[in-house]
Automatic annotation (TrEMBL):
The keyword Repeat applies. Keywords: Cytoplasm, Repeat, RNA-binding. It is found in: Cytoplasm. Residues 41-51, 479-512 have a biased composition (Polar residues). Residues 1-66, 479-520 are annotated as: Disordered. It comes from the Eukaryota. Residues 133-478 form the PUM-HD domain. Pumilio repeats lie at residues 156-191, 192-227, 228-263, 264-299, 300-335, 336-371, 372-407, 408-450. Pfam families: PUF. RNA-binding nucleolar protein required for pre-rRNA processing. Involved in production of 18S rRNA and assembly of small ribosomal subunit. Belongs to the PUF3 family. Its main location: cytoplasm. This is Pumilio homology domain family member 3.
Length: 520
């Protein structure tokens, strides 16, 4: 029988016959090889294990092996779910630098359960994870709602209002229908969503349905929803979706309810002011709630104006107080702002408050800020944040102040350097020049144009940028002969630093929601 097995010789030592891992069962096929009993385990195995038991184990392990072979490669070095070296022969592997070849797949090693044999697969991008959890009605609406001849109405989704509110398409459907629904339809939908109102307020789609009830619901429905919010206003105000509901509620509930909800913020008002969502709620309160109910906001701000004005979200609240506060409130805030104006003008967020004072403040406050800016005009004009304030000074200053600014920028200093040349080459200063060209009129503008032209031609020969094109348009030099002749010789001009290639002016760097409501 041994002569029937033909195996190629291999250049590696093999253990003694007595230690062989395999014994011949029957036949000439390699499948006839089954593991021999391990001599060190003879005492622990029952003697009744016969040929049929071994054959059964061999077949079961052979069926499990393909599943185990699907394990990721980082766990196993072979395509099979077990180590290359049997447990009793691990010491043999130390004598060789190469790996042993994989064992035969019918070696009876216990494999992992097949359901754990594959690494988890991430669902595809377009796969809907909520499919299978939706009701048949919502599934049908999502598939056929806008395509079939059937026209869905609110009565068609009765007893499914909460589910529809939490779905992107269902929420949009309810919002549209509530605008024209009769009182009975609104009442039915409201009864369904009322027990889950707080959860829907925090939901990415459900919050819009709650907002619609504050807009189109009855006064009783609005009152019930406002009662649901009591005791939770702080948490709702700092939540990304619920903060929109709080703002909408403040727009439509009665003053008594406004005051009750607003008072809940008092213990943590500074936290809410500095929150990326909560600051919108505080802004809305300042705009809508009568002043006698928000003394606590002014008390919290007092003595904190400078740190709040230089905060990413606090600066917005300071601006709203300057717009809607009493005269006494404004005077108190401005007193703190003037004391730190030098810091705020050059601050990343404080410069917006300085701009707000120049644009909307009292004449005496505007005058003080502009005077401070003109005292260090060249330095501030080349500053990333302060240059925005300089532009506001040009735009909202008096004609005499604009003339003074022009004279400072065109008069050579003690060192003989022309400030205009420095400004045009600077990545922020060139915006100040553009603003000045846009605001000056008549002979004064013509005088500035004549001062700029020589510097502009030198600049254009070496630099091509959006800022150069903007200056060219403001100067009215597009397509002129002088422009073409100036471009004919570029070798005689020393190289100058390039202007910024940013797509937007620094004045567009304000916080995106500074004048916009968070209601979406």
């Amino acid at each position: 029988q041994l002569s029937a097995i033909r195996r190629p010789s291999v250049d590696r030592p093999s253990p003694a016959p007595a230690a062989s891992l395999y014994r011949l069962e029957s036949g000439s096929s390699s499948r006839g090889l089954v593991p021999a009993a391990e001599p060190w385990n003879n005492g622990s195995r029952p003697s009744s294990r016969g040929q049929r038991t071994a054959e059964h184990e061999r077949r079961v392990s052979g069926q499990q092996m393909p599943a185990a072979s699907n394990f990721p490669a980082q766990f196993y070095q072979t395509p099979y779910g077990y180590a290359q070296v049997p447990a009793g022969y691990s010491s043999y592997a130390q004598a060789y630098t190469q790996n042993f070849r994989p064992m035969l797949p019918n070696y009876p090693v216990q494999s992992m359960h097949p359901e754990y044999s594959m690494a988890p697969i991430r669902p595809s991008r377009d796969q809907d994870p909520s499919k299978g959890m939706r009701s048949a009605l919502l599934d049908d609406f999502r598939v056929h709602g806008n395509k079939s001849n059937k026209r869905y109405e609110l009565r068609d989704i009765y007893n499914h209002a909460v589910e529809f509110s939490g779905d992107q398409h269902g929420s949009r459907f309810i919002q549209q229908k509530l605008e024209t629904a009769n009182s009975d339809e609104k009442e039915q939908i409201f009864r369904e969503i009322e027990p889950n109102a707080l959860q829907l307020m925090k939901d990415v789609f459900g919050n819009y349905v709650i907002q619609k009830f504050f807009e189109y619901g009855s006064q009783l429905q609005k009152k019930i929803l406002a009662e649901k919010m009591k005791g939770k206003v702080v948490d709702l105000s700092v939540q990304v979706y619920a903060c929109r509901v709080v703002q909408k509620a403040l727009e439509h509930i009665l003053v008594e309810q406004q005051a009750a909800l607003t008072r809940e913020l008092e213990p943590e008002i500074l936290k809410v002011i500095k929150d990326q969502n909560g600051n919108h709620v505080v802004q809305k309160i300042i705009e809508l709630v009568p002043r006698q109910h928000i003394d606590f906001i002014m008390n919290a701000v007092r003595g904190q104006v400078t740190p709040l004005a230089s905060h990413a979200y606090g600066c917005r609240v300071i601006q709203r107080l300057l717009e809607h506060g009493t005269e006494a409130d404004k005077a108190e805030i401005m007193g703190e702002l003037h004391a730190s104006a030098q810091i705020l003008i050059t601050d990343q967020y404080g410069n917006y408050v300085a701009q707000h004072v120049i644009q909307n403040g009292e004449p005496e406050d505007r005058e003080r800020i502009i005077k401070l800016v003109m005292g260090q005009l060249l330095t501030l004009s080349k500053h990333k944040f302060a240059s925005n304030v300089v532009e506001k000074c040009i735009e909202y200053g008096t004609p005499a102040q604009r003339t003074t600014i022009r004279e400072q920028l065109t008069t050579a200093g003690p060192d003989g350097n022309n400030p205009l040349q420095q400004m045009m080459r600077d990545q922020f200063g060139n915006y100040v020049i553009q603003k000045l060209l846009g605001q000056l009129k008549g002979e004064e503008r013509e005088a500035l144009v004549e001062e700029i032209k020589p510097q502009f031609y030198t600049l254009k020969k070496n630099v091509a940028s959006r800022q150069v094109q903007a200056l060219e348009k403001l100067l009215g030099l597009s397509g002129t002969k002088s422009e073409n002749s100036a471009q004919s010789d570029t070798n005689s001009v020393t190289e100058v630093p390039s202007l910024t290639h940013e797509t937007n002016s620094p004045q567009t760097n304000s916080p995106p929601s500074i004048h916009a409501s968070a209601v979406g």
